[in-house]
Amino acid sequence: MDAMKMQKVMRVVLVLFLSTCHAAFSITDGLLPNGNFEVGPKKEQLKGSVVTAQNAIPNWSVTGYVEYIKSGQKQGDMVLVVPEGAYAIRLGNEASIKQNVKLTKGLHYAITFSAARTCAQEEKLNVSVVPTNEKRDWGQIPIQTMYGSNGWESFSCGFVADFQDAQIVIHNPGVEEDPACGPLIDSVALKVLNPPRRTRANLLKNGNFEEGPYVFPNASWGVLIPPHIEDAHSPLIGWIVESLKAVKYIDSEHYSVPEGKRAIELVAGKESAIAQVVMTTVGRTYDLTFAVGDASNACEGSMMVEAFAGRDTVQVPYQSKGKGGFIRGKLRFKAVSTRTRVRFLSTYYTMKNDNSGSLCGPVIDDVKLLSVRYPRRAGAA
Ligand SMILES: *[C@@H]1O[C@H](CO)[C@@H](O)[C@H](O)[C@H]1NC(C)=O
Ligand SMILES: *[C@@H]1O[C@H](CO)[C@@H](O)[C@H](O)[C@H]1NC(C)=O
Ligand SMILES: *[C@@H]1O[C@H](CO)[C@@H](O)[C@H](O)[C@H]1NC(C)=O
């Protein structure tokens, strides 16, 4: 092949590659347009802090009692702080915000957003993705988030796109006496998740948790993954949060993570467990190995992770000084079914020692499942 031709081939390859990357990053990996609400309404579209026109916030459409909040604004004796930039919005009773998005059919997406409660002890949000063509209402993913502590937290949910033109809707279904009591919302992001794959090196999908929801570079509190019933709605690809409470997705930028850049913190004791169902051969021996540690987030004390595989279980104790570190756990089991449920939970409830009252817990990472070809007899391992 002469040099000229070679150059032409390379250029074509390069252009294709760049355009694919460009599409992936500019549209689907990060904040939605004006996702942090930094571009606000015009003066005449505000009455005090209340938004008076449906399209006042660029790129969004609002319904009901929505307030445009500036960081530092006071509410009673509480100062409202905004995590990203200087502005956020507040959703009053039955209020919602919507944005139209273009999706690719069949792809798995995760939405991440930050929220903070204000007056009410418990506030809920209903996040859904609906086709803009309202005749079809399938594809909804109503999730209801519950705030555990004061201040801001980020939440995520996942969905598989069944349609191209969709609307992301965040709705406050609450009915408080004071309409100005409602959750604050900031930083809404979308990310495409890569399809999970089992490899020769691991029978589990996404065993190191690297494939998960978008994590805001400036949010040092991780991302909560609420419990879900359906696999397709998990933003943590391959895994399901099958218990009552959320688990926390943490990043190596802000936490100590045993392997790679992401891990899971089991923040709600026995009430938060993650699981994955894997194909196994009856009678064959398998090794489930994993890392148990702490996130270096002032979460101290005696911790214990319980791992389950089918009918077998192991408890791995871990003594945390709250400064990071991890140990390895292992569960060897003989499959009794063609489908084995692998599951992890934290035995104890732990609270941070920083007076925040926040729940915390052991970190789990680098989970691998491998078939053991020549298992030594029991006791020899
Ligand atoms: C977002 O809003 C701005 C201002 O109205 C507009 O110029 C821009 O095209 C919008 N972006 C998208 C992706 O719709
Ligand atoms: C993130 O934090 C850095 C350092 O505090 C700041 O300079 C930057 O503006 C922040 N980014 C956003 C999007 O808020
Ligand atoms: C959640 O939102 C969906 C779609 O917007 C709606 O159909 C559903 O009734 C809402 N659920 C609650 C509890 O408000």
Automatic annotation (TrEMBL):
Its main location: secreted. It comes from the Eukaryota. InterPro entries: DGR2-like_dom, Galactose-bd-like_sf, Pectin_Meth_Modulator. Pfam families: DUF642. It comes from Stylosanthes scabra. It is found in: Secreted, Cell wall. Keywords: Cell wall, Glycoprotein, Secreted, Signal. Residues 1-23 form the signal peptide. Residues 30-191, 202-369 form the DUF642 domain. This is L-GALACTONO-1,4-LACTONE-RESPONSIVE protein 2. The keyword Cytoplasm does not apply. Transmembrane segments: none annotated. The keyword Transport does not apply.
